[in-house]
């Protein structure tokens, strides 16, 4: 994402090639600098459209930001949107004369968008349509972090009825989130490993990946994506159904040198003043994840977590048996060596480049919403201490666990 040296060198080489291969000089500023792919796969079930209407609102929000800025600033914007469980389209959003239009590129059938090969095809189609110096990916869907879809044997399906809009009663004003549905139907769910492999197969390296999904700012996710993206922008907790405030964040994202702090600040400002003033967001430098894993391996070689501290750990989810714990708080209770702990905190500061959290976070997983006080916030979660059955089934199979234990 912000790998400025790489971008500058690539731009210089690309410009030299253009000048060398043509008699006439080419203005490098006229070359497509950035292509952003908004990826919105099916988020519902065979009978429920999930977040589809919210995705349309998100796209309207992005278009309003484009119009406000009077264009795309040397960027091309492509959208993959599933209109049903088995029908999807790739189209480009264009700007001209103070309005946006949508130009269809390709129609897809089936559910290949859940497979590495299908994801690679979509990204390759976007690249072939709008080749650029830099690429970014905005993922809109439901999310349950690093967890493997096949490990959810006791998924809280009861949430489905509760998420239906109620016309009367005390719960009518409760806020929905983007948690439900992530593995509500395994035919439409995607493991984070499949996403990483799909990007790798496409041959595209992302400047950043933004997850407009719940629970994606995990050490496990950032580590899995470290070879296919420079930065990860995501929430440690649940994201309101409204999603990212794109009208406010777009200026920071639509740039060859994205301003992550400004994007984080825009999210925080919006949700601090939202009707349910709750939200967390982080910008994580995935290029630092190998170094963070190295420090964690040293710590794990010397220390074992005392489960007596489990009840006092900062939790950032609303599960009955917590899955996602604040990583900084966890390591502060795990590691008692001052030198090693200082080494960890220094590396963590290099890894999480910007973060923000409201005083409370909101979760609506079960029958009633809850609020969780945020006493400490490092901007990234970890599931190492989790006793949730899904974590017990899957965490030792993650690349993160294998690298740190």
Describe this structure as you would to a colleague:
The structure is a single chain. The two termini are 29 Å apart. Helix 2 packs across helix 7, helix 7 (246-253) runs antiparallel to helix 8 (260-272) and helix 9 packs antiparallel against helix 11 (338-351). Helix 2 (52-68) links the parallel strand 1 and strand 2. The strands form 3 sheets. Strands 4-3-2-1-5-6-7-8-10 form a 9-stranded mixed beta sheet, with helices on both faces. A two-stranded antiparallel sheet has the order 9-13. It has 405 residues and is α/β, with parallel strands linked by helices. Residues 1-23 and 160-172 have low confidence and may be disordered. The chain has 13 helices and 13 strands.
Secondary structure elements and pairings:
Elements (H helix, E strand, L loop, with lengths): L3 H18 L12 E7 L11 H17 L6 E8 L4 E10 L2 E11 L6 H14 L4 E7 L18 H5 L28 H11 L3 E7 L6 H6 L4 E6 L11 H8 L6 H13 L7 E6 L3 H14 L22 E2 H8 L3 H14 E6 L2 E4 L6 E4 L7 E2 L6 H6 L4 H6 L1
Parallel strand pairs: 1-2, 1-5, 5-6, 6-7
Antiparallel strand pairs: 2-3, 3-4, 7-8, 8-10, 9-13, 11-12
Helix pairs in contact: 2-7, 3-5, 7-8, 9-11
